[in-house]
Every structure is written in C-alpha cells, then in structure tokens.
Specification:
This protein has 101 residues and is of the alpha+beta class. It has one domain: Conserved Hypothetical Protein Mth637, Chain: A, CATH 3.30.1200.10. Strands 1, 2, 3, 4, 5 and 6 form a six-stranded mixed beta sheet that branches. The longest helix has 13 residues. The model has no long low-confidence stretch (mean pLDDT 95).
C-alpha cells in the first residue's frame, strides 16, 4: 500500500466514488496488493473524483495540493498517488490513527 520513493511515498488507493462523504473506510485486499479504501463524495465524471482525492489526501497528510500527484489509475478505481515530502513511517502512522478512530 505504501512504498518509499526518492521524492516521498506512493500510496495505493481503492476509490469508491459517489459516497455521502469523502473519508477513509478501511483497507482493500491484503499484503503487497493492499490498497487504502477511500469513499469519495464526487462522481467519477470528468476527473472530479480524482481531484477530490487529491484535495482529500493533501489535507489528510498536511501537504499542498501540488505535493499530491496521481501517477497511475486515472480511469480506474485502483489508483496510485505520489505524496512528496512524506516518509513511509509518517504515512503509516497517520493511516493507522485514522483507521483506529
């Protein structure tokens, strides 16, 4: 789900568009193929759900929007985002806090 890169980390996400609100809902899959499941309020039309995910992830990890980039899965529910300036430890800790609350 989280992989270290030279710029930060990549985060594998499973999007669920059309939800009542945008929020982390759990983990999808197991092991190396696990993805962070995020319900997205925006519909999957004209990239609106992707933009909503970028905004959500930027706020969630306290980053600017330009530090969150969709690098794979533009037209798929399975997506990979690059989070610049985040360490794997920071990402894992923040996600665990969210899942346990």
């Amino acid at each position: 789900m989280i992989r270290e890169t030279a710029d930060g980390v990549t985060l594998a996400v499973r999007a669920q568009p059309g939800a009542k609100k945008t929020a982390i809902t759990g983990i999808y899959g197991e092991g190396a193929t696990a993805q962070l499941k995020i319900a997205v309020q925006s519909p999957p039309i004209e990239g609106r759900a992707n933009q909503a995910l970028i905004i959500f992830l930027a706020e969630f990890f306290s980053l600017s929007r330009r530090d969150v980039e969709l690098i794979n899965g533009e037209l798929s529910r399975g997506k990979v985002f690059l989070l610049r300036g985040v360490t794997p430890t920071q990402a894992q800790s923040r996600i665990q806090q969210s899942l346990s609350s």
